[in-house]
Amino acid sequence: MLAVKAFAKINLTLSVGRKRSDGYHDLESVMQQLELHDLLEFVITKDEISLTTENTEVPTGSDNLIVKAAELLRRHTGCLWGARIRLFKNIPVAAGLGGGSADAAATLIGLNNLWGLGLSMDRLLELGARLGSDVPFCLFGGTALARGRGEVLDRLPEASPMGVVLVKPGFSVSTAEAYRMFDDLPDPEVYDAQTMVLGLHEGDFETIAQALHNDLERATFTMHPELPQLKDGLLGAGAAGALMAGSGPTIFGLAPSPEEARRIADRLEHPGLSVWATTTAAF
After folding, report:
1. Residue 46 among the catalytic residues
2. Distance between CA 217 and CA 248 in Å, rounded?
């Protein structure tokens, strides 16, 4: 049996371009790995690929990214082995935290080892890009600047350990719907991620907290006008900066330490909200 962690992510910045001819959007994003993670266990089998989990929100059939990643790996390599995969789900589903992408990345890593395939990280990154825009970063980890549709990655200085508070309301948001709404809105103002990059280079927490930016906020906030209140609530509870995670609906807040993040989380306990305190993670 082989166990692999699948780490959540947040976008410290996310700039979105217009839709391309292939249906994707050009992105520029400073991405950050979190300590919050799922756990996947892999057991080799003769030929069948199966997925089980106790989380009823997660489908276990061929439309799950874990199964898609396993099948892609087999097609690419000609491997005939199978695997019994068990998912322990901690990252909330459809929350903008890259949980499905993280699980797919962990599957590529886990089965590459379990099946003895010996694929390089560059090859895994190529395969990951076929599965989803966030999968390459979930393989890459740490702190990175992502471009293209997420597959072009440059490593950035690791963020100094920061506390992160995650607040998710009792509903989910479809990434595809968020992008469709984004396409219907006027073009956003151009954002320069260099302020965030400079803050990371200098280890300046205040600069990082104040440089948070997400072009998709307007789209998801338009669909769910209650979300700005959650963001204001996080700031009011003591977060140094707050932002919607990915396409939402989770809102995250930054704190200078894990201890302060836990104190902020305690102030936000409320029926209908799920609240986590976690930290940034290094590569």
Report:
1. no
2. 8
